[in-house]
């Protein structure tokens, strides 16, 4: 696994703890009770003041029904995602099926218009 930026990894974890907790409509207090920690600890992790240890991070994944790669913002090719990529993935996951389909359609339109890395954009 390649994680080139420890700060980015910590930012992804803090954002994703909050994201997946809220997705389940769980409060900080509720997650804290599940994990046997204080709500202040959850708040501290989500604000980025502290980070959970690996054992606690695995327990968080179990409580939020999410994989370790997802909570860390690591893509399937084992590279760390940028904050923007992580935010886009989380947005996609919040959308219903129609919204997800439309987002993919828009992304494909951008690709067809030539918005590809290393290429000049075509005139629309």
TrEMBL record:
Pfam families: HTH_3 (PF01381). Keywords: DNA-binding. GO terms for molecular function: DNA binding. Residues 17-71 form the HTH cro/C1-type domain. InterPro entries: Cro/C1-type_HTH, Lambda_DNA-bd_dom_sf. SMART domains: HTH_XRE. Gene3D superfamilies: lambda repressor-like DNA-binding domains. This is XRE family transcriptional regulator. It comes from Parablautia intestinalis.
């Amino acid at each position: 696994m390649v994680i080139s930026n420890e700060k980015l990894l910590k930012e992804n974890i803090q954002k994703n703890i909050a994201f997946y907790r809220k997705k389940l409509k769980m409060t900080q207090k509720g997650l804290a009770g599940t994990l046997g920690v204080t709500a202040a600890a959850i708040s501290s992790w989500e604000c980025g003041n502290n980070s959970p240890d690996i054992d606690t991070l695995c327990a968080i994944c179990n409580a939020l029904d999410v994989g370790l790669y997802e909570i860390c913002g690591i893509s399937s090719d084992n590279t760390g995602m940028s904050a923007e990529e992580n935010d886009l993935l989380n947005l996609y996951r919040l959308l219903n099926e129609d919204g997800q389909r439309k987002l993919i359609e828009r992304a494909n339109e951008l690709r067809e218009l030539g918005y590809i890395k290393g290429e000049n954009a075509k005139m629309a």
